[in-house]
Amino acid sequence: MGRRSDARERLLEAAVELVTERGYHGVGVQELCNAAGVKPGSFYYLFPSKQQLVITVLEKTWENTMTYIIEPIQTSSLNPLQKIEEFFMRTYHLHAHRSNEGKPVLGCTFALLGGELATEDPVINEKVREIFSFITNYFTEWISGAYEQGLITISKEDIPDTAKALLCFTEGTSMMARINNQADIFAKMTASALRLVGAK
């Protein structure tokens, strides 16, 4: 059981890296197995399909997002606007860590896979939409808190659309960071994110 679990974890780690870097269609099962040091014949014993592996990649990436970004923010004493700022800075530091190791800046796994497979794989698309809904809910919570504390100028009615706009801004920033292989775009765009939500 331990060896099976280890092989599954190695496949998952390889998939997180390769699928995010090259896309769903850019890497095959054989290459994933080679990168993970797993026999190709074991793949379908560990995962019923490549689709299921990618869904697990999305779930693992969301778990990491919660651990390294969302949960530390939620348990902090930061005010709501500072939480938005911290979201961008923590995202920056994660990408900067990769860059400092000589690895490319990959951007957002959710947007990359969702964009690639939006019209092709409804199951993966639904998983991405679910995760984006979670992120939007956190943005809504922070923007609502900022409104209640008088930290922003937007109206209460505009909060839901502003949260969606912040998600779009975040994903656009992620894409530009990937295209330019430049992690510090996240840090540079923090002030713009605060302006987007109407910070005073």
From TrEMBL:
List UniProt keywords, sorted A-Z: DNA-binding, Transcription, Transcription regulation
What InterPro entries does the database record attribute to this sequence?
Homeodomain-like_sf (IPR009057), HTH_TetR (IPR001647), Tet_transcr_reg_TetR-rel_C_sf (IPR036271)
Per UniProt, residues of the HTH tetR-type domain are 5-65
**Organism (species):** Brevibacillus panacihumi W25
Locate the DNA-binding region by residue range: 28-47
Official protein name in the record: Transcriptional regulator
Q: Under the GO molecular function aspect, what terms does this record hold?
A: DNA binding
Q: Upper lineage ranks?
A: Bacteria, Bacillati, Bacillota, Bacilli, Bacillales
- The superkingdom of the source organism is Bacteria
Q: Which Pfam families match?
A: TetR_N
- Report whether Kinase shows up as a keyword of the record: no
Keyword Isomerase applies: no
Q: Where are the transmembrane segments?
A: none
